[in-house]
Write a structure and sequence with these properties.
Elements lengths: L4 H5 L11 H28 L9 H5 L2 H6 L2 H7 L7 E5 L5 H10 L4 E6 L2 H14 L4 E5 L13 E7 L8 H11 E12 L8 H10 L3 E8 L2 E7 L3
Bound molecules: S-adenosylmethionine (SAM).
S-adenosylmethionine (SAM) binds next to α3, α6 and β2.
Length: about 230
């Protein structure tokens, strides 16, 4: 009996090996294994050798409908309950996809301090501000692990997306975040699985606990989440 297409693959004589199907299947399997292997290598390198994602990749990280779908800027705006008049800090702002969304939410008299360790990223942020006509963002060139040049307790809320696990000593950065927050202020940390530095939510909670931040709630699920912490004292 002659069978074509998918049906032909599952006839007793044709299963897997009919025509050129087996070549396609082997190629697909090889590609899947290669992809997994590359992911494992990149994760192990990033685990032992931390460095900021280069500035030339800034727009690529923020661009694309996929990122906006899995980590929509509204997720961060809602997590910190951004309202007009608030002072907010974005730690590791990159090219500013989330910074701009929060800056819009705190208008007209609120402000967002956008902290990044790379001048190249702040340049990309300035271009975005110009393109989108946003003025209430103040770029700050600083290492979140060191002393960020802003006053203690200046922020009503702080957020960071895909940054904290990229920093060699995350607890040190979280201590800075605690210093900059007002008592009762919220800190939101957003992560998603496709980031090569992606940490489990439990790991971020452990770091935050060490820095003295109190876990409040989690939005999303294990592979794509926003964790919200509070500064109690
Ligand atoms: C993966 S990118 C995320 C950018 C942006 N938050 C986003 O989600 O599109 C990480 C950013 O954190 C910045 N960064 C890394 N280490 C930092 C540090 N120690 N202090 C401040 N910024 C840092 C990098 O320069 C980069 O812009």
């Amino acid at each position: 009996m002659h069978c074509d297409g998918i049906v032909g693959r599952f006839t007793p004589n044709g299963f897997l090996f009919q025509g050129a199907y087996w070549v396609v299947e082997v190629v697909i399997l090889i590609l899947i294994f290669m992809l997994l292997w590359i992911c494992c290598c990149v994760r192990s390198i990033r685990y032992s050798w931390k460095f900021p994602i280069p500035a030339f990749m800034g727009n690529a990280i923020a661009a694309g409908p996929y990122r906006r779908r899995v980590q929509p800027p509204s997720m961060v705006v809602d997590a910190i309950d951004a309202k007009p008049g608030m002072t907010v800090i974005d730690i590791g702002c990159g090219s500013g996809l989330y910074t701009v969304a929060v800056a819009e939410a705190v208008q007209p008299d609120g402000v967002v301090y956008a902290v990044d360790i790379q001048e190249g990223m702040l340049e990309k942020l300035r271009s975005r501000m110009k393109r989108e006509g946003i003025e209430n963002i103040i770029p700050v060139l600083a290492d979140a692990e060191g002393r960020i040049p802003l006053d203690d307790g200046i922020a009503d809320a702080i957020f960071s997306t895909a940054v904290i696990p990229e920093i060699p000593d995350p607890v040190k950065a979280l201590l800075q975040i605690k210093r900059l927050l007002k008592t009762g202020g919220l800190f939101a940390e957003a992560e998603f699985l496709l980031d090569p530095d992606f940490p489990l939510a439990g790991t971020v909670k452990k770091w935050a606990r060490k820095a003295g931040l109190v876990f409040e709630r989690q939005v999303g699920h294990a592979m794509r989440y926003v964790l919200v912490f509070r500064k109690d004292s």
